[in-house]
Write a structure and sequence with these properties.
Rossmann fold; 5 helices; alpha/beta; 20% strand; 42% helix; globular
């Protein structure tokens, strides 16, 4: 018998309601989920944990999503990143792609779309 190891996802969003909602969606899809409320918290987590995919909010106090992407790139991380935002202008979208974002999802989005996107990126 082969043991199933659930893919590991980290959600980074300063909004607790968004984190909790995404946590429930992804847990129901048999994914292993960690949450962080800031980019700084994510960077600390990455010292001991290597997730399969990140779900990263663009607009956060302190270190925003773009700065997190740039730091990940500078540190040599190659983790697929799904950037989420309710409001993203063209300049931010372009910067996100230049920093290495894998996909961008506009809030609100369905749990099915998020799960499908994660599955595509980690396949």
């Amino acid at each position: 018998m082969v043991d199933f190891i659930a893919p590991s996802i980290v959600i980074v969003d300063d909004d607790a309601a968004v984190r909790d909602s995404l946590l429930i969606m992804l847990t129901l899809a048999d994914l292993s989920v960690e949450t962080c409320q800031s980019g700084a918290e994510l960077l600390l987590l990455l010292e001991t944990h290597k997730p399969d995919c990140l779900v990263l909010d663009v607009h956060m106090p302190g270190m925003g999503g773009l700065e997190v992407l740039e730091r990940l790139k500078a540190l040599g991380y190659t983790i697929p990143v799904i950037m989420i935002s309710g409001n993203m202008d063209d300049a931010t979208r372009t910067s996100a792609h230049q920093a290495g974002v894998s996909r961008i999802l506009k809030k609100p989005f369905s749990g099915a779309i998020l799960v499908e996107t994660i599955q595509e990126l980690i396949a």
